[in-house]
Structure prediction request, 196 residues.
Amino acid sequence: MNLPNKLTVLRVAMVPFFVFFALAAFVPHHFLIAGLLFGAASYTDHLDGKIARRDGLITNFGKLMDPLADKIMVLSALLCFLKLGFANVVLVLLILVREFAVTAVRQLAAESGEVVAANNWGKAKTVAEIVAVCVIFAMQWVLEMHRMGLYTLPAFETFAAVFGWAGEALVAVATVFAVASGLVYFKDNARLFRDR
Prediction:
C-alpha cells in the first residue's frame, strides 16, 4: 500500500477518536480535542491527494477510498452534531441521501468496469463540510470554556444563540454544495442508467 493510501486509511482510523471526544462532555476541552483531531484527519485528505498527484501514485483504491473516507469522516461529525443539537436533521438527511446516491452511482460504474473519481463540485462540497465542522467545534469550545469558568463571555446567551445560527448556516451552505454536486454526478453519469 502506497503512502497516499495509507493516509486515507489513517483518516478513517481517526474517526472513532474525534467522535469519542466530541461526545465526551466529561473531558475538559473535549470540543477542542475533537476539532483538532478532525482537522488533522481533514489535512490527510489534502496531503494524500497532493502526494498521489506529485509522485504518480494515483490508484483505483485511492479513487474509491479517498471519497469514501471523506464521507465517513464528515458524516460521523454531522451525526455527532445531531446528537448534540448543533445541526438540523433535515440538512443532515439531505447530505446523507446525497452520499448514498453518489455511492450508488459509483457502484453502477464499478459494475461496468469504470471508476468514478471525485469531481470539482464534490471537492467543493467536502471543503464546505470540513469548514463547517471545524468552525462549529471552535465555537462550541469557546462556549465550553465559558461554562468551565475559564473566562466570562458578556451576554453569553446571545453568543450561544449567534454561534448556533452560524453553525446552522454553515451546515446549510455545505448542504447546498452537497445537493448540487450530487446532481452533477447524476448528470455526468446518466449513461449508466440508460444502459440498464
Observations:
- The mean pLDDT is 89.
- The chain is about 80% helix and 0% strand.
- The radius of gyration is 18 Å.
- Residues 156-188 form the longest helix (33 residues).
